[in-house]
Amino acid sequence: MAAVLAILVTCLGPATELGKCIVAPIKRQFDYFCCFNSNIRSLRNEAGKLGSAINELQMQVDRATRNVEVISPEVEAWLTSAREKQRLADGIETRIFRGQTGCLNVKSRSALSGKAKKTAEAMKELREGRNFSILSHRPPPVAVEPIPCRETYDFESRKGIEEGIMGCLRDNIVKMVGICGMGGVGKTTILRRITERAREEDLFDEIVMVDVGQEVDMSRIQHEIADNLGLRFEEGYLRPRARILHSRLKDKKRTLIVFDDVWERLNLEDLGISCESGFNECTILVASRDRGVLDDMDVLNVFAMDILLEEEARFLFRNKAMIHGNDESLLSIAEEVTKECGGLPLALITVGGALKTRRSEWSWRYALEQLKYANPGYIENVLPRLYKPLKLSYDFLENEQAKSLFLLCSLFPEDYNIQIECLTWCMTGLCMFKGINNLEEARNTVHALVEVLKSRFLLLDGRNEQHVKMHDVVRDVAIFIASKEGRLNLHFSSLDWSREQSYSDCTWISMIPKERYKLPEKLYFQNLRLLLIYNSEEVAFHMNDDFFQEMKALNVLSFKSVWFKSLPPTIQLLKNLHTLHLESSAVETISVVGELSNLEILSCHSCRSIEEIPAELGKLKRLRLLEFSDCTRLTTIVPGVLSNLVRLEELKMIGSFSRWETEEKEEKRKNVSLNELESLPHLTRLEIEIFDSALAEKEILLSSKIAKYDIRISGSWPSVISTDEKKVLLSLSRQTKLANWIYKFLNRTEYLDLTGEGSNSVDLTQVQKVKSFGLSDCSTVKNLVSTASSIDWRFGVFPALESMWLCRLYKLEEICHGKIPEGSNSFGNLKYLLVNCLPELMHLWKSPDQNVSLTNLRFIHIWYCKNLYNLFPLTIARSLSQLEMLEIRSCDMMEEIFSDENDDGGKSCIAFPKLKRLSLWDLPSLTTFCKGVESINFPLLAHMGIENCPKLIDVASSTGNDPRAGHDDGSLHLFCNQKVSFGSLKELKIGGYENISNTWCCQIPDGFYHGLEQLVIESCHNISSLFSSSQVAHLVNLKELKIESCLEIVKVITDEENVHEKPSFPSLELLELRELPNLGSFCEWRRALELPSLKQASIYKCPQLRYMTLASLTTPNLETVGIDHEYIYMEALNDSEEGLNGVVRRRMSLAKDKLDEVKQVSESMRTRQLKTDLFGITTGRDEHGCVKCKGKEVAPTQSNMHSSNYSTQQIEELVAQVTDQLLAKVRDEIRAEVQSRMENQMEVFLNLLHSSTSRAFHATCTDPTNVASTSGESSNVHAFGSQVMEE
Hints:
alpha/beta; 26-stranded mixed beta sheet; five-stranded parallel beta sheet; 57 strands; 32% helix
């Protein structure tokens, strides 16, 4: 060959272009030929390394999948590419293997060698380039719904700003919008109006609003954004969380993030937010008092808010002060007060609220004088203009307690949800309540004062009724007032300890560390009475041992998130300390607290390092409140501690200690006993958990003053259950007999949860004041109450009950036994009803004997009640005016939801004006929603799901006959009844209709389709198509279409000859076609189909699908296509014009070619020399020399007694019966698997099968006794095939 190359070079000459073009290719092919073995070895080596890399990565992917995480697209793309390279390598190996049985010519050898070299190089490049930034991430939970805004006014001065901002939000190009104006001008109010309008106009999928505040806490802001987006961060720091949030905001949803009260430049990138034009649909709206802040943040679209116009200010003030036209004496003064407020909405509202109860002329003139002459001192810019009206509101407070409470709220961090209970402890510790003898009275007083401050707009609503907030401007003014009165709010970041002498006269101090800071060794605060230290969880805080050396006058000390393991020893010098509050602290031991002889309130909440309440705490003779809630590691209370706390009024131990013991000899007992509670005569509040249910039988004599309680026995419940203040939760075995002290609590309880076989021992007629009631896991109870018992019918049965859940009561037949008279208000306040797994229940309430009022019922969940024939009679159903959600599942005998027991001839009507969600699942006997009604109205129904209700053909039937009568055309008539109105249906799921041939009745009004946004069709096996072309024209708002497990469907859309409109799904974003074995196309018309909004398409196990449509298919926004286990990213395709139609054609054609190839291999195997029983069908010869083959014998003749004389025909007859069944099975399994990811494994299996059978054939022809010996190898082949099938 070398000589030939030399001759070619000589003849052609090095200077000629022809020589250059010919020599190089020939040389390359020559190298391929000569290096065949080395190239194959290199391929095998790289294939092994790549296989190991794939296995390693797949294990990580499997681990992430088990943790319900979403795999990164780049990881999936790499795995897909790597497996494709493996398939190429396997194909080369197969061709080499086949060539060994024949002869590889020069061309074939050279081609295989070249292909092996290129594949090995590609494998190496792919393996070395494996570098993933993120392997997986957690999917988002359900997002938090924003809070709606309060009542607002349509002022002319605000309309232009509001419409301008809305215009920017509608413009996809604008990414940042700003609002600036002085504090209290109404920025927050207009932000809430804008977010509400944006939500109503559906401009964004998600809206987040965050209060930033003066001290920028990036961690808090991140968490608030994440909470509103339904995202939960794992443990980590700012930057890792920023990457997670950044990934969340890239999920193609339109998001509006509103930042309110921004005082300095906010670095959005540090939070994980990008405002680049290509960053999906994320828009930022920022509000600040400083225009310069918006300029620093590069906000170009800025709207400046000014004060109200004169007429607007006059209207707002008069409205808030409740001044009417007949109050002539006050009108002139009101005019001057309005001018003094300067048109500032916050001032107008606060002053008006302060004066609305003052109707005398002199009080208004006094107010006017105060507004004119108040001096705010050193406060600059905005604050002076707000000080006068807010100072007036403060001065108009009736008593000093309200003023002190107002100033006390300013000591908490900005935008903080202040716990009213904590305010109670502080004011009690400061001895602010004169003439109040117990904590409950103090608590009631604080709640009353809070209501006063809220009515004057000095405090705002918090997260719930137990919390309040303070507006930041109001807080600024309150801090100024407090500083004048010797109270101070300090931040370590701005505190100059060299001026500590100027702080020594302070009486209240709030320390809020914002960065790592070490305090001086000693602080001289001789007059300090209250110290609050609210630390951030990410700030390291160090406190010296002598920290409290010079604070001996301290009355109140509160720590939050201060991470030291022991309290400073100098705390024992605080002999005047009345309140000590530790929250989320790492303190392990609290023995030193026993030296605080005057301590009255000790609260340790979520201190999860405390394991023991030591004996030293028994010395706290003046202690009135002891709390160790959520101290999960607390397992020991030294005996005698509680009994020594003789003045104790409140004991709170929920979520911590539960190992109470019985009263025995002192030396044998290691823990506290319940009997020690008898030594607490002043106890008014008791919250305890008892692990041992046997203690529920022990009698103890508790204080009769206990009015609020939370008693939990032998169960597992979350710490926070409800806001009810009287709770009993019992898990009772069959042998438990409750003691009298528990029954005393039961008679007054508001929240009762019973579980276990012993629950039937509780007489529920004695707990008629209960608001929340649950009963579960009791197999003996047959009814809850019997009306034959002593029930006061003036009030009825459970008149106060709001929530009821009944679960796993296997013998319960009815809720009430006996009659309930009309007008008794039984169950009149019930709002939530859950019934789960009551197999013997036949009715909830019987009509007409049981008259219940369900006018307040909002949520109904009925699960697994197999003998329940209907839910309610029509007489009760008509009272469900507040019902919002109805869910019924797995009730085998239910025939109708509501029954017409009066049979009024179908002339009645029924409406569910507030029903938003209806779910009916697994109801095999259900035929109609309601018989005997003429019309049904669902004006607000938005979500509807009907699954496995095969007999439910129509929603309503105006006669008592079978509702299926007249509906024998094979169509589903759920939505064609003109007298059934579905006003707002957006999401619809239909499944389990195996007998219908048409999902949509031809009589369905066109308006039904217009509102649909999501449609899911499952397991409707007899339908051949889903829509007609005329119906498609009405699906203008459909965003998601999912079709699954419909065995006979051939196409999704059928063409109608008389329809000429251009077909289109203008809003469709997601299309899923799953497990549709006969689906041939999406639609068969020859007109262009447009899917302009489609972003994702998924096709799984649709083997007959060859194309989406015969004509062109337009999908300009398509991003990903999933076909079986392969995901295709459209931007990665070389042919950008290919689109969804081309992808489907190409992929399905490739699958068909693979299938045809396998079929050819399978057919050729029938004629090959397959002479062995692969699965042990043949077992050798019998005693007569006959070959045994499952009942069939082949008798030997004289000519074939020797194995060498057996003819091929005889051997083929022997194995033919085996191979037919085997090959048929193999072909069927291959056909099912070849459309997914198993093509290469199948091919290897067939080759191995062929190789094994060929060897077995030759061995059998030589000696039939070798049949048995080859069965082992055949079994190995079979095992490999089985493994492939299982995969």
